Amino acid sequence: MKLQGIILPIALTALAACNNSQNTQELSPQKLSPQKQDAHQAVSQAKQDDERLAERLATVETRVEALLALLTLEEKISLTHANAKFSIASIERLGIHEMWMSDGPHGVRHEIERYSWNSANWKDDYSTYLPPLTAVAASWDPAMATLHGNVLGSEARHRRKDVILGPGVNLARLPLYGRNFEYLGEDPYLAAKLVVPQVKAIQRNDVAASVKHYALNTQELNRTGVDAKPDERTLREIYLPAFEAAVKEGNTQTIMGSYNRYYGTNVNQSKHLVMDILKGEWGYKGILLTDWNVDINTYDAAMNGLDIEMGTNVKNYDDYFLAQPLLEMIESGKVPLAVLDDKVRRILRVQLTIGMMDKKRLSGQRNITEHHQAARDIIANAVVLLKNEDQVLPLNEDKIKTILVLGPNAEMLHSQGGGSSEVKSLYEISPVQGLKDRFGDKVEITVMRAQSGAAVSPIATDYMAVRHWTGTPQWELTRFVDRLHQKILRADDWIANSAYRVSEPGQAEYVQLSTLIKPLATGSHKLQLALDGQASLSIDGKQVLTHQSESLTIIEHSIMLNAGQGYHFELNYNGSGSVVLGWEAPSALFTPESEYLAAAKSADAVIYFGGLSHADDREAIDRADMKLPNGQDKVIAKLIATNPDTVVFLNGGSAVEMPWAQQAKAIVWGWYGGMEAGNAYVDILFGDVNPSGKMPITLPVKLADTAPIALDDYNAVESLYKEGVFIGYRWFEQQNIKPLFPFGHGLSYTQFEYSDIKLSSASFEEDASLTVTVKVTNTGKRDGSEVVQLYLHDIDASVPRPIKELKGFSKIALKAGESGEISITLNQRDLSFWDVKTNNWLAEPGEFEVMLGSSVEDIRQKARFTYR
């Protein structure tokens, strides 16, 4: 009775607080940019936030135990699995409300129906569309990570979300990986240093971050079945540091497990990854939750640390692995009750920590001017100037009266694609819109759509009426076992356009492509079929084309179609080569080659906005190759030959080949730029903003140069991580392969000189540190920012170590002619590798070399020290 006397008042207090938490609009929200406020107000706000959080955290553990004691077994079970697509059950009698989650690594996802993936068709679920995390990584700036996280957290709270499913920190091991755009580049140190401020900023808004995907999610090819098998040193040094930093330094409240397997079992139920490392060595106190529809089982998931099961392909939520099956295992004694209690403690701890039962919980803000400006600031700091011969950039607007704009990304909007990261943006400024907003009628801006001149190009996506759940145009792809298409091999694939190539040349495949096509104009459409093998095309069930050829052949057929009417296209292909379905349509979307080249020759400025889109960079599917899609290379090469000052501006989250790069004078990389992309891009092109972004990935000359491809370690069955710790730039240096553009590369409209490198000591010992300082001078005529990168080399290591390892960076803003000093501190962990003999980090005594540079290839200053 005495125990109840203690517990019940606490529980009732929690219930009252939770009830009050639903009416928080009158509370002052977290301020986005304290630097724009009065200094006294900013300090006061920060102090209030710290006091509020400290007061809440002081009672969390006591309240957790009090609530746990009052929960029934069934109520505990209800907290460990979803009760709808994005929520966890409430227990209203104790003041525990539903915990709501949302996708959103770069913007809170639009609202979907409670029990389906269909849109809820809300009229007020627009969010700020931020640049993806590759752009944050390209800024090399923790301040941008903080800005990004603060917007994300504030908007999630305003949408009444408790957990935002991001940020993502898986590394860009493979350029083909469909989700590289969501993550923080190829280097574990860079990712670790940027995820911490991101997580902290999100969670200061009373929202739990969910760092994902733990771990080794480096391909979409058979993402639910591929077995990741890195050696322990590779795991520790490369693929876990960002997660470790998020836990130990960022105090992330939740972590999302990945789809793939790890040595034979799904990572969500891996004893080594979860119990030994995450919850053991790192002492993680938060929640591990699944992605949707992962391959787990009840016993292993329960015993090996999974806390919440969010999505499983069953009809009833009670049939989830951590629902009724777990209840039965606990009642039978197969799973101890203590195992369940640990999960519930973690869930309650997170709910209390983020203020779900706190009347002073922040309410957030959404789509305010400061958030939109943040999106613009982030991408402005992330754009990378790859090449700028003859100072083609910045463009001089005083001398420009005509601008020719070409390329598939000139008017493309990217917010609605990519998969679970799609955002219902309030607006999105395309590059063309950005130019028009800047110049109005002062400059003649001509927009043309150019095709490659290939014999047959795929039917443009403008005509496609079907969208994949990732938001991109879709041709449903069905694979068959036999030539007669009677036995289905796989029916859940898709591709983005009407061009198909077999995965292994020479190996016969039997496929069917289907979609809904809506013509833009009524009239005769000349169908074109380029094939190597056997193909047939049916429209609304009627066969209109069929042909078989052993060599590449083109056949044509004209047909009358009506504007706006939907036609079901079905293309069947049997062969060991390729098939492309195109047409010449009366709507004339594309400009003839002779016309756009003539315009390029006479224009004062030519800008080609090309690259990738979310038809290429997207969840669920990897790219087939590293080439620019739809023949862009041919168009770019011809434009450069016609007008050598053509500016090539590329979007994308992964590397692409650039066979025309040597001829191009100006190349810019803009990632996916968020809702303010067009405005920010124009700021860069015309010099209002001096570019300062640096590549967080290596851009290879060709796909075959990359480690997974060179080592034949990319397939649907298992990934052995044969390159070990030599990921990205480390591989290129080890193999002496010259990339197209190196990791860390990025030019400016000004120049920077490094001088006077100094070490705080010639040596240091265990548990001490060493500080490296260098003087940086802006020797040019423009204000600008430089990212100083510190690479470390172990001179005489007992194990193979990279020639250079990123171990520090600092971004410094300098006015023209100004000098400044940056300092970077190294500690024992920075010097260490994972020693498989002792299962611990080891810094070996000996000599180390510090290299400071503007990229991994552009080293400006060096010094040596001794570790004792």
Automatic annotation (TrEMBL):
Keyword Isomerase in annotation: no
* Entries under Gene3D superfamilies matching the protein: 2.60.120.380, Glycoside hydrolase family 3 C-terminal domain, Glycoside hydrolase, family 3, N-terminal domain, Immunoglobulins
Q: Please name the Pfam families in this protein's record.
A: Fn3-like (PF14310), Glyco_hydro_3 (PF00933), Glyco_hydro_3_C (PF01915), PA14 (PF07691)
Give UniProt keywords alphabetically: Glycosidase, Hydrolase, Signal
Compositionally biased, Polar residues: which spans? 25-46
Q: Does the keyword DNA-binding apply?
A: no
What GO molecular function annotations does the UniProt record carry, in alphabetical order? beta-glucosidase activity
Residues covered by the PA14 domain = 459-604
The biological processes this protein is annotated with in GO are: carbohydrate metabolic process
Signal sequence segment = 1-16
Region (Disordered) location: 25-48
Q: Which InterPro entries match?
A: Cellulose_deg_GH3, Fn3-like, GH, Glyco_hydro_3_C, Glyco_hydro_3_C_sf, Glyco_hydro_3_N, Glyco_hydro_3_N_sf, Ig-like_fold
Q: Which PANTHER family match?
A: BETA-GLUCOSIDASE
UniProt lists the family membership as follows: Belongs to the glycosyl hydrolase 3 family.
| Stated name of the protein | Beta-D-glucoside glucohydrolase
Organism annotation: Shewanella psychrophila
